[in-house]
Amino acid sequence: MVINRKIFLFLAGTICGTLMSVASLSFATQPNAAKNIPFDELRTFTEVFGRIQKDYVEPVKDKGLLEDAIRGMLSGLDPHSTYLNEEQYQELRVGTTGQFGGLGIEVGMENGFIKVISPIDDTPAQRAGIKAGDLIIRIDDKPVKGTSLGDAVKIMRGKPGSEIILTVVREGVEQPLTIKVVRAVISVTSVKSRILEKDYGYIRISSFQSRTSDSVKSEILKLKQKNKGDIKGLVLDLRNNPGGVLNAAVGVSDTFLNSGLIVYTEGRVGDSQINFRATPTEYLKGAPIVILINAGSASASEIVAGALQDQKRAVIMGDKSFGKGSVQTVIPTSNGGAVKLTTARYYTPSGRSIQAEGITPDIKLSRVKLQELEKSGYEPVKEADLSNHLTNGKAGRNSKKSSEKSAANGDITRDYPLSEALNVLKGINISKRIGRAK
Question: By residue range, what is the domain housing residue 60?
């Protein structure tokens, strides 16, 4: 008898990269299968199970016992293999898409109540008037005191278009406020960009979701529009990015490559041995890239950094990355849950295994803090301070450029790695210009 079952490969946890695809798994009864069954160990398991049912101080449900046994079996393999019940599996799927029906607020716990850390821009919560610092004391007339943060979040999520009533306590307001919020589809933005200064762009990826590679391409086009032309260099910020969907990491890498291997995986099962190669879709026309990483850059982040480093496409700066180089396959089970199982290791184009090693930056940066010095009363005398000095005839235009550059630099004054990354990009372009002049 052969049972075919669909296997969906999703991101599994905050620091796990996983393969997004669908495969087929077959379980076949082999003639010598009985010889491989550990009867003695199974007999011990049933003895312990029966003893717990009979003698434990409180009654325990069989379902809970067996789920805990499965979790224990998987946790003994490695830190990333685990069992997901139906609820946890659904939460996992929400996390990989970055989209769900909800209110659009970032929350935490404070004294047993739900505290609003921040309403997300242009979401139902913000439009309804929810503010940072609000304490949610009731959800649909049910007190939240004693409710876990996870349970409260689950209650607030729901079908788009449905209503929820929040009772909040706000500093400076005597009486609790009752606020009605209509749930909507909330999209978690994993990619942001801005112009650092003329011709130099910045893209920050906070996590790798199913739509991240498309978002990166879109942000590059926006940067070109803002710059009124192609950019001459890009800083790709992957610091504290815990990873995500493997296909997203492949897509982001492909955005900056024209050919060659991006990453490959190897495992015991044939389906786990896959090569991912770049297509001729490079978006920056060869402009230099600096990738910022640190110890919080894991999994999918390391795939991107490793691919572009091996392909000599980017300079890697910062601290050594986390070292998460294994692939987890999420296999749905018949009860609506899933098993998250480590099935492969992934390797960079040159054959490096990132597992427990991480990506070593080309330029290692010390952990320092930048602080702009206060202006002293004394300023050095310059030509422009001398009496009857000649003007350059273009003061207005130069003055404008100088002020624009100063304003842009103000954004990175306190970010030492970002400041150094921008300097490296400028240095690469200066080197190219000097080379052409020769």
Answer: 2-26+39-95
Q: Quick one: how many helices (H) and strands (E) in the chain? A: 10, 21
Number of domains observed in the structure of the chain: 3
56 within some domain: yes
Q: 181 and 201 share a domain?
A: no
Are residue 356 and residue 253 in the same domain, yes or no?
Answer: yes
Q: Give the position of tokens 């291997």.
A: 261
Say if 302 falls within a structural domain: yes
Q: Report yes or no on whether pTM surpasses 0.90.
A: no
Please check whether residue 404 lies inside any domain of the structure. no
Catalogue the active-site residues. 299, 310, 324
Picking from 155, 187, 219, the residue at the C-terminal end of a domain is 187
Give pLDDT tens digits along the chain (438 positions): 333 333 333 333 333 333 333 233 333 344 454 557 888 999 999 999 999 999 999 999 999 999 999 989 998 999 889 898 888 888 777 656 666 678 988 777 778 888 887 677 678 998 999 988 899 999 998 999 878 776 788 889 888 899 999 999 998 898 999 999 999 987 767 899 999 999 999 999 988 988 999 999 999 999 999 999 999 999 999 998 888 888 999 999 999 999 999 999 999 988 889 999 999 989 999 999 999 999 889 999 999 999 999 999 999 999 999 999 998 888 999 999 999 999 999 999 999 999 999 999 999 997 776 666 665 556 777 777 777 777 777 654 444 444 444 444 545 778 999 999 999 999 999 999 887 776
Same domain as 252, residue 210:
yes
* 53 and 14 both lie in a single domain: yes
Contacts made by residues 46-54, CB under 8 angstroms, sequence distance 24+: none
CATH of the domain at 216: 3.90.226.10
For the chain, first and last CA: distance in Å? 73
DSSP 238-283: -TT---BBHHHHHHHHHHT-SSSEEEEEE-SSGGG-EEEE--S--S
Alpha-helical segments (H) within 315-415: 395-410
